[in-house]
Structures are given as structure tokens and as C-alpha cells.
Write a structure and sequence with these properties.
Layout: H1 11-62, H2 83-86, H3 94-98
Length: 99
């Protein structure tokens, strides 16, 4: 009896490998989505913390919290603009503040 060498995969073996890969991808996707959601949450938390620190820094400099609008148009103090505009230098956005 002569034995022949098998060089290629059979169709059944190929389908089994594809099915196994599909199951592994199906198990991996929820974990990846959870990590992405967690990273987005951490980034948002960090951004909120930076805004709070900038507001506190503004208070330390000007003895009041940033506000919307102008309280006194005749004042020489830089008080116009929204609160977000007023804290730009404290968020390391001096160029945007100056423009």
C-alpha cells in the first residue's frame, strides 16, 4: 500500500479554522469596546479636571470666578468674553486667547 503526502488543507479544515477565528473575534470585540469606552471616560474626566483647575487658577489671579459677559465696560481689567475664553491662558492656550 502506497501512502500519498498531503500538501494542502482540506475544505473542512479550512472552514473549522475560519469558524474558530470568528468565535475568537466575537469574544474579543466586547472587550475592545469596553477598553475604548473606559479610555474615553478617563479622557473626559481629565478634561473636566483641567477646566476646574483653570477656574481655580483664574480665581487665584483675579479673586473672582470667570463669568459670561462684561461686568463693567469702563473697567481696564480684561473681563469681556465668556468664561471659556477667560480661562484659555490657564489651559495653555495663550495664542488662541491673544488672537
Amino acid at each position: 500500500m502506497r501512502r500519498t503526502e498531503r500538501i494542502a488543507f482540506t475544505l473542512v479544515e479550512l472552514l473549522v479554522v475560519i469558524a474558530i477565528i470568528a468565535v475568537l473575534v466575537g469574544l474579543l470585540l466586547p472587550a475592545v469596546q469596553k477598553v475604548r469606552w473606559s479610555a474615553a471616560r478617563a479622557k473626559s474626566t481629565s478634561n473636566l479636571k483641567q477646566l476646574a483647575l483653570a477656574a481655580h487658577g483664574f480665581h487665584d489671579n483675579y479673586k473672582s470666578l470667570p463669568f459670561n459677559g462684561t461686568s463693567d465696560a469702563s473697567s481696564s481689567a480684561h473681563t469681556s468674553g465668556s468664561w471659556a475664553y477667560q480661562i484659555l491662558p490657564l489651559l495653555e492656550q495663550q495664542a488662541m486667547y491673544d488672537s
